[in-house]
Write a structure and sequence with these properties.
Radius of gyration: 34 Å
Shape: elongated
Strand content: under 5%
Number of domains: 1
Length: 96
Amino acid sequence: MARSESSSGGRGSGDELVDRITDVGVRAADTMGRMAGHVEETRDELMAQGAELSASVQKVGKNFSKALDKSVSEQPMTTLGLAIATGFVLGALWKA
């Protein structure tokens, strides 16, 4: 009888262990599901911000291009002087 009690006690704790492991697995799956949702939301937000940034950079590039064209046509020597000065400063920074 001692054997049947110890073996049934072992089975009970084995069932309890299986239940605990199953519970932990279910919690882990729920947590992973929530994390995946948060990752998708963050990805979507970053993609939207990237699109806005790209549009802003394109707008600035177009404005700079228009201003440069206007400067070259109206004041070519001043524009050339600024280009030389910018090149000199960038060259000095490059060596530093």
